[in-house]
Design goal:
- By secondary structure, this protein is an alpha+beta fold.
- It folds into three domains: 17-82, CD59 (Ribbon); 125-255, 2-Layer Sandwich (Phosphorylase Kinase, domain 1), CATH 3.30.200.20; 259-479, Transferase(Phosphotransferase) domain 1 (Transferase(Phosphotransferase), domain 1).
- Helices cover 32% and strands 19% of the residues.
- It contains eleven helices and 16 strands.
- The protein has helices spanning 40-44, 85-124, 145-151, 212-224, 261-267, 272-290, 354-357, 366-386, 411-420, 435-447, 458-471; strands spanning 17-25, 28-36, 47-48, 51-56, 135-138, 168-171, 179-187, 190-197, 200-207, 235-243, 246-254, 301-303, 312-314, 320-322, 329-332, 337-339.
- The strands form five sheets. The protein has a five-stranded antiparallel sheet with strand order 7-8-9-11-10.
- Helix 8 (366-386) packs antiparallel against helix 10.
- The longest helix has 40 residues, at 85-124.
- It starts with 16 loop residues before the first strand and ends in an 8-residue tail after the last helix.
């Protein structure tokens, strides 16, 4: 046994049991170690007011043995028990990895936040060798006067508008140079105003705060890819400005006084030529979006995902241009990268394809998104031909499925009609008396196949419409 008594031999002793004792004398605690012989039970159980003993009976068991006198000496520093080593190790094994995990998680979250902020600042506030600027203004080819002069390439306008020579025009603040004249449209996205910039009309789409992601996505796409095409709405600039003590998100584009196709069809009756011109120009724009152009002057393939008559504008020459790329997805075959953005907004329910309504669309396949555009194009084509005069007969404007669902249909309303009942919009019989409209009706039906892979492609539709246009006496159009 361990021993610190005067009779100890080399700090040890031999006995029946080992003991540790503590006693209180004049407020001080005295501790002793040693061996016991006879009457061990009596001695070991001693626990009087100022004295206590604890014993053990294995070799040197009292060397590190603590006696806890919780009753006799509560103020002593020795009354607090030590945490067993195994418990300490267990706590360390749990707490250390947990703290490390929390720290790593916080660092990752901070890194993602900084990356998003950097991406946003880089998009909105770029710098070049002309000095420190607040915005790089990107303009499109089409336009007149100042816009045309600003966007003309040194070698003259590109035929397709899909080249890479698009110039950057540096402006300190674009929004301050625009005078808003009148509000020409309102919707869930916000408002569209006619503005005047450098003496010419421009359209200013002011996004609502809850649709910030759509503004960011359109800005991102217009600044990432080359979309100059006569049947894609011409982009001028994207800006963030402060008006009336609040931040406004602006998308500045070319202005078309005829407004959207939705508005145009409500007030205009068409003849066969204009009907075909509208249909053909829309598919030309959709082909340009869907097709990937390779090379340094190329562009990724793009699917619109919200094609409808409200998102198509009618130009002065009665051709259309596609607008609103806030939900678009991009795809590049080379890297096989599908960029779907992070906009929580979904497309317009009335124009949703059956695979979207029954949630069977392959979200990892770019072709799936193109096929939903074709379904929607068929519905837009239906809206157009209903407003076309045949033998003095014409229908009033109505949206697709007007006679099957409420004016503001729910997801379930559309799912029942399109998926469960497998209905499509009705085509007036009198339209079949016209060869052009009969051909357009056939195209519509082939856009509405429930199996997405059997639908026509945009390029196939364009070629068919090009043949139809050449059958008329008017000069054929060329995208």
């Amino acid at each position: 046994c361990a021993c610190d008594l005067e009779s100890c031999n080399n700090h040890t002793c031999q006995g029946k049991v080992c003991f540790v004792s503590k006693n209180l004398d004049s407020g001080k605690v005295f501790k002793k170690k040693g061996c016991l012989g006879k009457d061990t039970q009596l001695q070991c159980s001693s626990s009087e007011k100022e004295y206590a003993t604890r014993c053990c009976n294995s070799n040197m068991c009292n060397e590190n043995m603590n006696i806890f006198l919780l009753i006799l000496f509560p103020t002593s520093a020795e009354v607090q028990p030590e945490t067993p080593t195994s418990l300490k190790n267990l706590l360390l094994m749990i707490l250390v990895p947990l703290l490390a995990f929390l720290v790593i998680g916080m660092l990752l979250a901070l890194s993602c936040w900084k990356l998003a902020q950097h991406r946003r600042r880089r998009l909105l506030f770029q710098h070049n060798n002309l000095g420190d600027t607040d915005l790089m203004l990107k303009a499109s080819m089409a336009g007149d006067g100042v816009l045309e002069a600003m966007t003309r390439l040194p070698s003259g306008p590109a035929e397709t508008g899909s080249g890479s020579g698009l110039p950057f025009l540096v402006q300190r603040t674009v929004a301050r140079q625009i005078a808003l004249v009148e509000c020409v449209g309102k919707g869930r996205y916000g408002e569209v105003w006619r503005g005047v910039w450098h003496g010419e009309n421009v359209a200013v789409k002011i996004f609502s705060s809850r649709d910030e992601q759509s503004w960011f996505r359109e800005t991102e796409i217009y600044n990432t890819v080359l979309l100059r095409h006569e049947n894609i709405l011409g982009f001028i600039a994207s800006d963030m400005t402060s008006r009336n003590s609040s931040t406004q998100l602006w998308l500045i584009t070319h202005y078309h006084e005829n407004g959207s196709l939705y508005d145009y069809l409500q007030r205009t009756v068409l003849d066969t030529e204009i009907c075909l011109r509208l249909a053909y120009s829309i598919i030309c724009g959709l082909v340009h979006l869907h097709v990937e152009i390779f090379g340094t002057q190329g562009k990724p393939a793009i699917a619109h995902r919200d094609l409808k008559s409200r998102n198509i504008l009618v130009k002065a020459n009665r051709q259309c241009c596609i607008a609103d790329l806030g939900l678009a997805v991009m795809h590049s075959q080379g890297s096989d990268y599908l960029d779907i953005g992070n906009n929580p907004r979904v497309g317009t329910k009335r124009y949703m394809a059956p695979e979207v309504l029954d949630e069977q669309i392959r979200t990892d396949c770019f072709e799936s998104y193109k096929q939903t555009d074709i379904w929607a194009y068929g519905l837009v084509l239906w809206e157009i031909i209903r407003r076309t005069v045949v033998n003095g007969l014409v229908e009033d404007y109505r949206p697709p499925f007007f006679d099957m669902v409420p004016s503001d249909p729910s997801f379930e309303d559309m799912k029942k009609v399109v998926c469960t009942d497998q209905q499509t919009p009705r085509i007036p019989n009198y339209l079949y008396s016209d060869l052009i409209l009969t051909a357009l009706a056939k195209i519509m039906k082939e856009c509405w196949y429930h199996n997405p892979s059997t639908r026509l492609t945009a390029l196939r539709i364009k070629k068919t419409l090009k043949k139809l246009s050449s059958s008329l006496e008017n000069p054929k159009q060329d995208c």
